[in-house]
Amino acid sequence: WGSEESFRRFAIQGDTRATGKEMHGKNWSKLCKDCGVIDGKSITLTDVDIVFSKVKKKSCRTITFDQFKEALMELAMKRFKEKSAEDAAEEIFKMIEGKSPVILGVTRAVASPTVSRLTDTTKFTGSHKERFDQTGRGKGKAGRVDMVDTSGYVSGYKHAGSYEKKVKPGPKQM
């Protein structure tokens, strides 16, 4: 059923080496949180952790899909006390079916006043000021590098370009 797919998605979440065949405690609690299994009343994060420790093998840090089903059964009984084991299981699996991990605000750039202040180019002073034009666009290399005169003449030399004339081979001298 669809919860196997969800198990796999949560099992590999945040772990590049995960195969999706077993699930860490961290991802188990995330699954319970994201799917609304934890309601803070009948089921808390602690319950979820206890059940995880209960179903996993002693030396293991992960649970298999079968252990996962077992763990969910435990929680289902706790969450839906008034229902039969079958119905409770069905309810809880419905909550998980087709779900994927919720990944919150990883990519949103934070507009904090500090960052805005530090990146406001109109307030720059000294040599940094030279690096931006009036609109705040960076001038690139031109704003950073003192452009070097590579003509070979000492700066301020009046007769730049006159070398060729002097050395031009005239008539051969004996």
Account of the 3D structure:
- The protein folds into 2 domains: 1-96, Recoverin, domain 1 (Orthogonal Bundle), CATH 1.10.238; 113-144, no CATH class.
- Helices cover 45% and strands 3% of the residues.
- The protein is built from 9 helices and 2 strands.
- The protein has helices at residues 2-12, 25-34, 45-55, 65-79, 85-96, 113-118, 126-129, 141-144, 163-167; strands at residues 22-24, 62-64.
- A two-stranded antiparallel ribbon has the order 1-2.
- Helix 2 (25-34) crosses helix 3, helix 3 crosses helix 4 and helix 4 (65-79) packs across helix 5.
- It is elongated.
- It starts with a helix and ends in a 7-residue tail after the last helix.
- One of its GO terms (cellular component) is microtubule.
- Keywords: Cytoplasm.
- Belongs to the TPPP family.
Question: Any descriptors?
Answer:
2 strands, EF-hand-dom_pair, mainly alpha, 174 residues, Recoverin, domain 1, two-stranded antiparallel ribbon, tubulin binding, cytoplasm
CATH H-tier superfamily of the largest domain: EF-hand
- CATH classification class of the largest domain: Mainly Alpha
CATH architecture of the largest domain: Orthogonal Bundle
And the CATH topology of the largest domain? Recoverin, domain 1
Sheet with most strands: strand arrangement? 1-2
What is the strand and helix layout of this fold?
Elements (H helix, E strand, L loop, with lengths): L1 H11 L9 E3 H10 L10 H11 L6 E3 H15 L5 H12 L16 H6 L7 H4 L11 H4 L18 H5 L7
Antiparallel strand pairs: 1-2
Helix pairs in contact: 1-2, 2-3, 3-4, 4-5
Family: Belongs to the TPPP family.
Protein name: Tubulin polymerization promoting protein
Pfam families: p25-alpha (PF05517)
